[in-house]
Write a structure and sequence with these properties.
Blueprint: E1 7-8, E2 20-21, E3 24-25, E4 28-29, E5 39-44, E6 47-52, H1 54-59, E7 75-77, H2 83-93, H3 106-118, H4 122-131, H5 137-147, H6 150-162, H7 169-175, H8 177-188, H9 203-213, H10 228-238, H11 241-253, H12 260-266, H13 268-284, H14 295-304, H15 306-316, E8 333-335, H16 345-350, E9 363-365
Parallel strand pairs: 1-4, 5-7
Antiparallel strand pairs: 2-3, 5-6, 8-9
Amino acid sequence: MASPEPSVSDDTPNSPVTEEILGEVANVVVKDEQYYMQFVTLLVEDTLFMVPKHLFTRSCNFFSWMSDEDVETKSHELEGVSKTDFQALLKLIYPLNLPLEPVLSESEWISVLKLSSLWTMIDLRERAIDSLRSLESIQKVLLARTYGISTWLHSGYVDLASRNAALSIEDAHSLGLETAVKLIDIRERRYSSHTAGHGGQSTTGKSIVDAEFSGKIQDVQTVNSGDIADMLLWAKAVGNAQSLRLAYIDFVERSTAITLEEALKLGDETTINISQAREKLQNSLGRLIWSLESVSQELKVYDAFAEEFATIANVGALYARAPDLNQETQTTVPVRDHVSMIPCSYCRKKKLGKGKKCRCGLTVLR
């Protein structure tokens, strides 16, 4: 005689239910607490994905709708998500091969960062940020602006302001002209002050300009103008080589960096070319002052980008973990105001007391 079909209990696994079928006690089957998985079908662009839903529902509130009873009977479209980004996320959270340590490319980690930020998956977001820590400074700044990563924005700007290589035209295009001009100004303040002279009186200035701008100067006549930027633009327009040369030399030799107003007139390429020539001149004259500490450059970066730091910190605060009230409060806790959680050297040197705010934007609590 065949055994009766086992009945499956919809109750909790620890509450077995028995049924009497034709006078016999049926076998009791329960759903495992961990490994009885429910699946959901998701439409991303033109592709269907059927995946276990538990990691989505546990990771963030965005997928709370997956708890509905009919969620497994139909597909659900994820709008505004690319198939490539979604595949990278699945590769991380649902590895298909052993060992279960998937290796993601840089672009795949960026996809994980994108979606984990979109859906507030804090664990995955933090893992992506850690895995992308070796990105180049330009990329860090751009991603920091998009996904609210204050530490990347700060470290990226400090590196761009302190590195040996001058900003390139490509850097200016990526960062935007206003940011590039601020960084140029910070970089030039590394040099000792010097007396600016007229272009025609400095052999070094002439040689730098002749080497850097030889392809942009044609042999015509000279003219004078009160505003260097206007003179340069006029000389380009009419093909006045001597005036163009003098304008370049004045820009390269003067004591102040190009202003944003001048940069907007001149454009990205001319602004960066002049900036690079100015740095070459200063290096050739041995006027570069490298501080033994990075405090000076950090403070200049804080001052120049304070408003942007505050904006990005507000975005990043959306992903902050709730404080663990069970842990003992440390003696000194630097609280991020608009930049990194790590206090700068100035904070540590001055040993700021309770409620004091450093110039870098950190407030110290005790």
